[in-house]
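Input/output pair, single chain:
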Amino acid sequence: MNKTELVVAMADKAGLSKKDAEKALKAFTDTVSAQLKKGDKVQLVGFGTFEVTKRAKREGRNPQTGAVMSIPASKAPKFKAGKALKDLVNKK
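Output:
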């Protein structure tokens, strides 16, 4: 499912126009992004948690040449699914 298909599905499910559903989706992604940028986490009970993880500086290898290179420390967004979502996905 791509963004357009998600907007259409949200509009149908919530009884909104596509334009309003797209605004809601943009507001959600902007808000989650802003919170993650500040270092906060966003918990949606039953769905999951968005948070930022820190990656330490490490040594790596260039796969083409095999040369050792330094990979700088970084932060990465992470999503951890909640129990209800996991149960729904694994339901047979």
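The helical segments are 3-14, 18-37, 83-90. Residues 48 and 82 are 4 Å apart (CA to CA).
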